[in-house]
Amino acid sequence: IADTGGMTPADIAGAITKDAVRIAFFDGRRKVSQRDIDRALMEQVMGMENPVEEMEESQRRVLAYHEAGHAVAQYYVMPDQKIVRATIVRLSTGSQGHVMPVDTVDQHIEPVMRYVYDIVVSLAGRSAEKILTGEIYNSVGGDYRNVQYNLWRLAVTGYFGPRMAMRYSGFLGTENQLAAMGADDTLEKFWMRMEEFTERLLRRHWKEVTALAEELLQRNTLNGREVVDIIEANQDPDALREDEIIPRTLASIRAQT
Length: 257
Prior knowledge:
257 residues, single chain, 11 helices
């Protein structure tokens, strides 16, 4: 149930009784497995798998580390969500890969700090690429849009104070609004600070990122339990020491910004 947030009973029934059966049938099997059901549920939310067979191996590796970076950041800074799956298979929606989390409880009201942690998760893909290769790739379109959206949500909910809340209270997405955000030094400094936090987090947990990425390269798709098991099996006790990388309170993160 926790893996099907936002899906209707009809969506779930269709995934189990139709899509999972189709997946098993075309794989030459007479029985449906849990992995078939997981894949069918993913199709309902994210689209059907449309793998790129000719993707060069070095590009697959960058993609695997990108998604592993998202997953490890998600595990550490968004514990109120559950990772459902991670994949490096292209989907019919155009996504080259993704990590899918779901809320463990319905969020009717949200703490504003959740937007900060969502920014960290969004930045973690490119941070992992940079740590791995020393280069940056054009892989952050959706990630950066999510960063922009969360910066806007932080501004209008008063995170940076009432003046900025009034300045950005219009709709996100208009050219004027985005241009104004892009010219704001406070938001730029905050973004850069979040990039620093994110890179430090991944460097501390790089063993886990590496193990997860290498498993994705072998298997393409992992369910949430498999992702968590790989992360926890590769944790370094020194990486779990108490000093904070990502500030956990509004006051501490404001102070460092």
